[in-house]
């Protein structure tokens, strides 16, 4: 029995439950910020007379940093321990949200782009990948649970934020995020310790106190020599472009242009978020059971089909068609994450979370480019109509790419 396997046996089931509860809450909290982009853009346009271009820079920087921060956050967690970096990330989120409350285009773009981007970036699914590999021997189901938690924060809280924005004003959802972050900070301080979650035991087997930032790039140098790394990165970049880059920033403004209220679009996003939960947990469970390439191809194809359908029904009043879209898209929205993380662990071993953190950079670059493209298309044409066809085509291409022989597990 290896030393790592012995470490897993030293952690009780209750401590694992407590640990994943804390991790899930951190991911929910970070997720509560990321989908505010579209809601805030709509509210700032309505209440302050801003344009979509006034927030595009901050949103694009946010999405890029959301991915680019992850490799360095993983390094810091492995060097200094997960708890310290989690607390620092939550404090950065607090600072970013409080600065965004100020009525300034420059401050909003810098605070949302840099501070919120950094804070959320440290608590992405790369954090979930490291967490799952540190506390659990089989990572498929835990990563599915944490991915579902991320989506819960992103979409399930959105209708409440939208109601607060409509009733109180655009600052209200930001204040709501601040309150949630403070609650999470208190729970992290209380539960993420040796007694309740075996942090010291985990740290003793996973911490790398002598590592440096240079090691981050040394690891990257090794990853880029592997063709599978590039294929997964390309496919995952397409994944980001057809999920985060669309639903976080373009769906609510696009629906508003078609006469759908912010509240109604938020409820559609709520349905997407709720269906993400069984979709990602199911994908995580299947990742431990079946071929991951075939699973990813099916997910991409069905997601693409739903996006091609969307522009034909978005101009209609909210009815069964849009609800059906939300259900289908929700199931396959982020279901790619657990099989990709499991693939990374299978291919790169103990460096799987680090490899995934770099692959997640591609995901967020794709998301940022799609967000920018959506804002540009809307600015030029006055509509997001063409964006959905482009996104659907990207999904179909990704379905082909993941079946590449260089993407396999062996």
Can you put this structure into words, describing what you see?
With 410 residues, the chain is mostly helical. The chain has one domain: Growth Hormone, Chain: A. The protein is built from 23 helices and no strands. It has helices at 3-10, 13-34, 36-48, 52-68, 70-80, 82-100, 105-121, 125-135, 140-156, 158-167, 172-191, 194-197, 199-206, 213-224, 227-241, 244-248, 251-257, 262-287, 292-313, 320-332, 337-348, 352-381, 385-401. Helix 4 (52-68) runs antiparallel to helix 22 (352-381) and helix 10 (158-167) packs antiparallel against helix 18.
Supply the CATH class.
Answer: Mainly Alpha
In DSSP terms, counting alpha (H) and pi (I) runs of 4 or more, how many helices? 23
How would you name the CATH homologous superfamily? MFS general substrate transporter like domains
The radius of gyration computed from the alpha-carbon positions, rounded to a whole number of angstroms, is 20 Å
The largest pleated sheet is described as:
none
> Mean pLDDT, nearest integer?
82
Low-confidence segments, given as residue ranges, are none
Q: What CATH architecture label applies?
A: Up-down Bundle
Tell me the β content.
under 5%
């Amino acid at each position: 029995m290896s030393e790592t396997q012995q470490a897993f046996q030293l952690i009780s089931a209750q401590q694992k439950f407590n640990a994943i509860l804390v991790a899930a809450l951190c991911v929910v909290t970070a997720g509560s910020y990321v989908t505010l982009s579209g809601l805030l853009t709509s509210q700032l346009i309505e209440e302050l007379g801003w344009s979509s271009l006034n927030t595009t820079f901050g949103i694009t920087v946010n999405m890029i940093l959301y991915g680019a921060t992850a490799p360095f956050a993983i390094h810091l967690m492995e060097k200094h321990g997960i708890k310290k970096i989690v607390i620092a990330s939550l404090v950065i989120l607090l600072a970013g949200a409080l600065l965004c409350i100020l009525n300034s285009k420059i401050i909003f773009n810098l605070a949302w782009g840099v501070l919120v981007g950094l804070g959320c970036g440290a608590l992405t699914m790369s954090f979930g990948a490291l967490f799952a590999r540190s506390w659990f021997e089989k990572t498929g189901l835990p990563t599915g649970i944490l991915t579902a938690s991320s989506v819960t924060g992103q979409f399930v809280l959105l209708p409440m934020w939208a109601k607060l924005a409509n009733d109180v004003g655009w600052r209200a959802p930001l204040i709501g995020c601040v309150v949630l972050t403070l609650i999470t900070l208190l729970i992290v301080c209380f539960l993420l310790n040796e007694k309740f979650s075996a942090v010291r035991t985990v740290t003793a087997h996973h911490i790398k106190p002598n590592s440096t930032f240079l090691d981050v790039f040394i690891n990257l140098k090794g990853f880029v020599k592997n063709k599978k790394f590039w294929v997964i990165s390309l496919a995952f970049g397409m994944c980001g472009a057809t999920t985060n880059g669309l639903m976080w920033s373009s769906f609510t403004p696009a629906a508003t242009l078609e006469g759908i209220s912010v509240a109604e679009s938020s409820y559609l996003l709520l349905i997407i978020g709720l269906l993400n939960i069984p979709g990602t947990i199911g994908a995580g469970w299947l990742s431990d059971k079946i071929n991951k390439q075939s699973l990813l191809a099916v997910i991409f194809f069905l997601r693409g089909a739903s996006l091609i359908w969307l522009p034909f029904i978005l101009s209609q009043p909210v009815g069964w068609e849009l609800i059906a879209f939300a259900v289908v898209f929700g199931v396959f929205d982020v279901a790619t994450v657990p099989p990709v993380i499991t693939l990374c662990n299978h291919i790169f071993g103990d460096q799987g979370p680090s490899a995934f953190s770099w692959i997640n950079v591609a995901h967020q670059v794709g998301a940022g480019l799609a967000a920018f493209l959506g804002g540009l298309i809307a600015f030029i044409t006055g509509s997001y109509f063409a964006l959905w066809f482009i996104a659907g085509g990207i999904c179909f291409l990704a379905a082909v790419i993941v079946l590449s022989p260089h993407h396999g597990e062996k």
